[in-house]
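Posting here for the record, re: zinc ion.
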Amino acid sequence: MTCGRGKTRCGLHTSVAGGLGKMLGRAKALGEDAAQIFVKSNRRWEMPLLDEEEAENFRVGKKAQNLWVCAHAGYLINVAGDSATRRKSIHALAEEIRRAEELDLEALVVHCGSRGERVPAEARRRAMEGFCEALDKSQTCRIRIALENSAGQGSSMARDLAEWGELVAGLPGKRRAACLDTAHAFAAGYDLRTEAGRKHLFGKIQKEIGIENLVVIHANDSKTECGSGVDRHEHLGRGKIGGPGLRAFLREAWGGGIPRIGELPPGEREDRENLDFLQSNRPTS
Ligand SMILES: [Zn+2]
Ligand SMILES: [Zn+2]
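Prediction output follows.
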C-alpha cells in the first residue's frame, strides 16, 4: 500500500557546490529520485542572487530526470526569537520561500525555533505568526512549509509532538506540511527500536499532525541515546537506533509514498551505503 502517493522516493541531502546544475549531476550519478538542497548558505543570513538561466535549467533538468526536490531553510532562522532575530528570520525565511518556489521545489523544511526564556504558549504564538508573516511577505502561492520535529536540544520547540502539531496547524491550510526526522524523534524519546515505540510514534503523528501533512521523512540514525535530547546524526544502521529498528520503521506501510531523505556526513562510500539502505527498505506491503 502506498497511500495513493505512488512510489516511495529516496535520496540524500545533496550538495549544490558549483551550482544547481552540478547538484542535478550528483543526484543522477548516485541514482536519487528525491533530494534535499540548501537554496543559500545555511549558516549565513544573506541570500545571493540567482541567475535566471540557472534557475530555468534546474527546473527543466529536475523534471527531465524525474527528481523530487525539497529545500532545508537556514539554521539561523528562529521566528520565535527576540525582536531583532525574529525580524531577520522572517525576512530571510520569506526570501527562501520565494527562492524555493522559483525553483519549483516540493517543500521548504524549516525548524520550529527556540523558545528561549519565553513561556511555551507565547513562543508558539510568536512562531506561528512569524511563519504566516514570512509566507505573506514572500508573495508566493504554492510551496509548502514543512515544519520539522526537534530533538529538544537547548530550548528548541517541537520535541513534544503535540507542540509540533499545534505549530503545523498554525500554518495556512494549503501551505501546511511537516517533516519527521527519525534521529530527532529518537532523541526526543520515541524508541524506534521496538514495535511498541514505532506504533506509539505513528499514533502520535496520526493524532497531532495527520499523515497527509507529512511530506518528507528525514531518515537519520542517531549518535545519541533514546531520550537524550541531543541532536547528532549517524549513518544509517550505525547509530543507536541501529539497522533492525530503522529498517522496520522505513518499511512501515503508513510511510509509503512519503519521500525519505538522509542527512548524513557526505563521503563517496557513505553516500552510496546510505542511499542503498533507503532504497532497499521501501515499504513493501
Ligand atoms: Zn533540520
Ligand atoms: Zn532533519
